[in-house]
Amino acid sequence: MSQNESGISEVTVEVPMNIALVKYWGKRDEKLILPLNDSISLTVDKLTARTTIRMIQGVGKHTVEINDEKVELSSNKRYQTVFDEALRLQRKRKEDSNGNENRSVSHHFEVISTTNFPVAAGLASSAAGFAAIALAIQQLLNLDDIQANRLARIGSGSACRSMSGGLVHWKKGEKDDGSDCVAVKTKDDNWTDLYCVILVFNDGRKKVGSSEGMRWTRETSTLLKHRIEKVVPERIDLIKKAYATRNFEDLARVIMADSNQFHAVCLDTVPPIRYLNESSWQLIETVEKFNQPEIKAAYTFDAGPNACVIVQKKDVSKFINALIRDIQINTDDLETLPEEFRSIEYQKDDRTENNFVCSKLVVSSMGSGPEICTPSKNLELI
Amino acid sequence: MSQNESGISEVTVEVPMNIALVKYWGKRDEKLILPLNDSISLTVDKLTARTTIRMIQGVGKHTVEINDEKVELSSNKRYQTVFDEALRLQRKRKEDSNGNENRSVSHHFEVISTTNFPVAAGLASSAAGFAAIALAIQQLLNLDDIQANRLARIGSGSACRSMSGGLVHWKKGEKDDGSDCVAVKTKDDNWTDLYCVILVFNDGRKKVGSSEGMRWTRETSTLLKHRIEKVVPERIDLIKKAYATRNFEDLARVIMADSNQFHAVCLDTVPPIRYLNESSWQLIETVEKFNQPEIKAAYTFDAGPNACVIVQKKDVSKFINALIRDIQINTDDLETLPEEFRSIEYQKDDRTENNFVCSKLVVSSMGSGPEICTPSKNLELI
């Protein structure tokens, strides 16, 4: 067995976050992170985690650094779970090729990750982060896609949806071991006309974490089961069909209905869970108005007050013009919009001065896949 | 046929509003006001409509006056519906006794109603108002309880639940003509220990009216049907059982879960309907805290932000003490509490100064029935 001089393999990847169009809420297996229902998502090209992983030979502690801050791994068990699984897969692979396992060679990981968005903004950056770790480890260890998908998932459930571009369908699977629980790109070409406008609304309230929230809902909601069994499968089909036929109105209708239903089952929980705040509701109202007489925008909210509004490229500027009449947007954010949307003159007079404040606005195309920035050093040589 | 000298019959009644413990939301027949699901309620003794009806012989226009303001009947069709039905029943009764109908004697109604609570506070005063009209007409025309119940219901659906005291079960019925759709007092003795604390939270938003909201939910929610078919029947049974066995914790659990589920199906509507505001959510949080480690209070919200918190008599003062730490309550309201709750010294220091403002607080016992204040002049003489 050979290896490079220092016994270090390194790879860098860049992975986008994703936003669910039909929401994941509830686990059928807490340990393996197997969901109770299918979900379907698109990536947000501009919001990414850029992650470098080094796999270092020898005894040592794993380290993870995100945006220049060290992560305390003892209180973030998910990283340990991912590293353990990665090293198990590595040993298994060697065992398969050598016929016996060489446990004497130990390794540890060093992860350095940068998100181009504040983690505290609550934009599901952990999904992009764990997808990046999984993708990097896939390169380092030559894993197949299903193994990599699983690695992402046990880090953060919805991370597996960031492992490819296009419309991604995360199938809940039926098997107890989770082997058929995998996120796959649907066959269709990317619908490159889809853009999203993301609005960060700060919120003083203490948020119910999604793992905890899902558990409460699964244990107490009398509506969740019906949603999972009857509503979600139909909606997954509707989304696929609307995406394949480029039917924006149909797509938008399902996106909004499913966001609302996700928040409805949160409210149908004991104790009730609320993620939407007054600004979120103002945004809903703004979109409702904008959608008269024709549906041109679809809002969706994850487990927090921030909004993601999906529009077609041709409607981005129009939508931002509608936004600024109802919600306070930073001048800076408007001035740093992508070139093609910046030419529009957002009239100062049109801008609102009410209490709904968007602390950060981002406009992004959707559907790009992750990127491997450096080729992996061939682990076969280790 | 005889009548009193002036040809006028008059009766005065006083009828309490009621609050649903399992909510009514959705009609199976819009015209007859037949609900999609059973509901169950308690009356609020202190919030009443006191109504005098005169039935005047001769051609003339019906008039309705509420709290000294004339109601424009052309834009409030429900009154006309009720009066038409009342006069139809009167003619039918005469026809039955005389063998032929005497259409030549016409009548009209004069209604004068006073609620001891501002109508604008959004406390379902129309339910008490229509129940009062129905009860008064029952006295005037010697109607049976089922006829009176129907009269109340076609005025305002949930009004039929104010026609008697105790725990009242409004059965949706199965028949198309609504003949088995009736609100009945459950057999149990009144649980006189139940009190409610009502908090009025003003709200700048334009509210979606309940008739319109129900229609939207019925037409667009994919959760409502499951609620109606599976969840509500179980909850009606649970409420009856908890009430019969005086099990407050069980009663409270169902009350809160059903309020939340009602608002969840509102959110699962296209477009989504929201009635709870920030103050409502603060109240939910206050109750959650108060219920540690033992459930002693149950919140419930109708189609608006105002809260009704049900507690046992022994816990009223304790609950108000918890309230004033989180929500601004008028000093006046505290000073005019019923004698038995007034002795508690609400410490000035304990009182909050945040933004959650309760504009009116009312404490009331529950479960009283309506009262007939004057005996009806015997219509048999007309």
TrEMBL record, chains A, B:
Keyword field: ATP-binding, Cholesterol biosynthesis, Cholesterol metabolism, Lipid biosynthesis, Lipid metabolism, Lyase, Nucleotide-binding, Steroid biosynthesis, Steroid metabolism, Sterol biosynthesis, Sterol metabolism
Broad EC category: lyase
Gene Ontology annotations for the cellular component aspect, listed alphabetically: cytosol
GO annotation (BP), single: isopentenyl diphosphate biosynthetic process, mevalonate pathway
Protein name: Diphosphomevalonate decarboxylase
Pfam families given in the database record: MDD_C, MVD-like_N
InterPro entries according to UniProt: GHMP_kinase_C_sf, Mev_decarb, Mev_diP_decarb, MVD-like_N, Mvd1_C, Ribosomal_Su5_D2-typ_SF, Ribsml_uS5_D2-typ_fold_subgr
Domain spans labelled Mvd1 C-terminal: 196-373
